[in-house]
Each structure stands twice: as structure tokens, then as C-alpha cells.
Amino acid sequence: MTSILAEPGASALPLHLVEEGGLPGLAGSLTDSQSAWAAATGFTGAPGQVCVLPGEDGRPAGALFGMGTAAKRRRGRFHVARAAASLPEGDWTIATPLSASEAEEAALGWYLSAYRFTRYKADGVQKARLVLPAGVEADRVAAIAAGEYLTRDLINTPASDMGPEELETAFLALAAEFGAKAKVIRGDDLLEGNFPMIHAVGRASSRAPRLLELRWGTEGPRLSLVGKGVCFDTGGLDIKPASSMGLMKKDLGGAATVMGLARMIMALGLKVQLRVLVPAVENAVSGNAMRPQDILKSRKGLTVEINNTDAEGRLVLADALALADEERPDLLVSMATLTGAARVAVGPDLAPFYCDDDAVAQSLFAAGRSVSDPLWRMPFWDGYEPLIEPGIADLDNAPSGGMAGSITAALFLRRFVTETPRYVHFDIYGWQPTAAPGRPKGGVGQGARALLAALPEVLKP
């Protein structure tokens, strides 16, 4: 991971964060010539504006960064991260007082803005280094950033180099790094292990399906994370058009996000008993692909009528959730790039989640706001339960009509969690469609930092 922090005690240039229209208030912090220079360059404190202040020797003596108004800042996040790419090389320190949450967001945003996906093409590095603001824990910020980097790398890697086997390799490397126990069930062994739906979704691919499992920690509450690892989704026999298939390398976004979160948890040494389950498959087309109107039997014993082979993510998650549910963890979380309906409802920037426990849901929502990882609660609406009951089988994987698609998918998953009182499902997008502060275009984690921040409250005895 790129080093973007300056050494403690380094001689650093001051970075002044300026409210829009707030330049006159800095008169006591700038020399007369610097104030005149800022005014001459047209600096107003507008969002993202940068004014490098010259010193007497012609070298930079500091910089001003426009923070805009409070109303404008509510439209985005990681505002200070915009300065990182615009400042000249050197060590910088934020000269403006910040609250604890503002300081941590500034440091994390600086880290996240330095992310580059360089597996196939070299890219420029961020040269401005930040002296960590007072009160911010360097190890914590670095651990969170490293987890997010892992998530982004996994999503950004094309399916040619990130199939089920390669996802397994990354999963095992993560386990080895932190001394976690790992287990893998592959191919036809899934049938012997009673994971029929994971097998059914992945059997048509030349790359065998598998279930990945990681266990770490021997103390504290039990936390189970389940992530959808569909490494590429053609749609199966209900094949996607090219326009819908273009971003399907990101269909492992749920797996990538729980792996990134697991990395944060292990790096920070949280007192939890962590279990991570990732069903890793490729939804492909061949002679043995599952067909529309096939009926599959799940690990839970429930039968599922396949009315759209492109609604495969909930099938692989169902078997993995059933396994996780058998242990009755204190908190069970699933994450998946599951439905287009969620994007229609809330767009790409919000991560919708489902939870029947009001206290857990409120903790998650509040944590998301506090760490700039926005979430939005959606309803497990019991009135839609009949929509997922086809009559010929226990469940329908793709109810007709197209209404409430994200909700019916969440209700489908909830049918496989019957023993665990606290269950949360995230229907994430996992992709940043346009570059934003701290979030370059491409793969992105959603919900992981909010979960991390909420865990002490959610899992307290």
C-alpha cells in the first residue's frame, strides 16, 4: 500500500482549510504578501480550490484548500482528500483545528485517494504526504485503508484473472497473513457436503465452484460474514445482453467487501470470533447449466424453482447462510451485489441494508453517518412474502412482475436464517461510476467501515 503519511515530527508545510468566503479570517495566519497572492489568484474557498502559497525563496510555504459551505459539504464526503492529488510533493500538516471525526476522515480520505489499480498499467503516485492529525491512530487508519484496498483490487481485477480459483488464492493468503484457519470445498465435493445450490450455479463453468471458509479469534461474540463471490455472471441460460454483462467482474463485490472487512477486523485485533464464508462460482453457459423452471433442493431442505438463471446470487448465498445459521452466531451479515432494483431505489452511492432488529439497524445507520460510509435501511416487508412462493416449490428465485426486487431478494435470503436472531443483509453496488474524493472510478467497498464502527455497540454483551 502506498505510503502517504509523513514521519512524526517531520518538518511540514501548513495546509489551511478555508470555508467559502472565509479568506479574510486567515489574515492572522498569512503574511500580507500571501494574502495578496491568494486574492490575486481568485481563491474564494470554493469546494476543492487549491492555492499554493509562495515563500520568500520561491518555494511553497503552505497552501489553502477550499472547503466550500457546510451545505455543499453535505453533498459529498472525504473533502480534504481532494487536496492530496493537487498539492506539490512534500510533507503537509493540517493547520486548521478539526474534531476527532473530522481528523480521522481527513486522514483516511488521504489514504483512500492514494489508491491506484496498477496490475496492468503503471499509474502516477500521490506525492503529497500528510502528517497524521493529532488524536488519529495511525495503525487503525492504515488497517481500514488496507482492507478497502483489498476490496478494490479484487473487484477491479477482470474475471480472466479473478475466477473462483484466484479468489480462493486471495482468500487463503488473507487467512495465512493473520494466522486464521481456512477450509475449501470444491467441485463435486459440494454435493457431498450438502451445498447443492452452490454446485448448481457453478457447475456449468470450466472453473469449479467452491465454498471458502475462514475462522479467526477464540474470544468474544461470534460474528459471521457471508459474501457473494460470483466471479463473473453471464446470466446463465437466461443470458445477459452485452450492455448488462460489461461490469459483471464486480459481481464478487460482496465477497470482496467481507474479505476487506475481515482484514480490518483481524489487523485491529478485535475481540470477536470471526467466521467468513464465500461461495465462489462463475455463472456460465454450457450443456449442464441449470435451466429455467428447474427445481433445486437447498442445504436448508427448502426447494427453489428457478424462474431466472440470472438470479443466481441468492442461490449461492442461501446455502452459505444456511451453514452459518446452524451455529447461531451473535450477528450474521450477508453482503452481495444482488439486485438492479437496489440501484434504482437508492443509486450507486448508498448501501441499502435489511434488518429486523431496530437497535442494530439504528446503530448501523448512525455508524455509517459518523464514518462517511452511508447506509439506508430497507424493509423486510412481510406483505411481499407470497411473491416468493411459486406454488410448485417452496420458493421462487425470481418472482414475476419486477416490483420490489431488492426486497423480495432479501426476503428470499431471510428464509435461510431461522436460528440466528440478528441478521443483516446488504444489497451493495460495489462500484464507483465516476471518480469522487477518496474514491476513484472502479471497485469500491460499501458498508464495511460502517459495520466496523458499529460492532462494539451491536455486539456488546
Automatic annotation (TrEMBL):
Question: Source taxonomy lineage?
Answer: Bacteria, Pseudomonadati, Pseudomonadota, Alphaproteobacteria, Rhodobacterales
Molecular function via GO? aminopeptidase activity
What name has this protein been given in UniProt?
Answer: Leucyl aminopeptidase family protein
SUPFAM superfamilies per UniProt? Macro domain-like (SSF52949), Zn-dependent exopeptidases (SSF53187)
Keywords from UniProt, A to Z, are: Aminopeptidase, Hydrolase, Manganese, Protease
Protein family per UniProt: Belongs to the peptidase M17 family.
Q: Which residues form the Cytosol aminopeptidase domain?
A: 308-315
Q: Which residues cross the membrane?
A: none
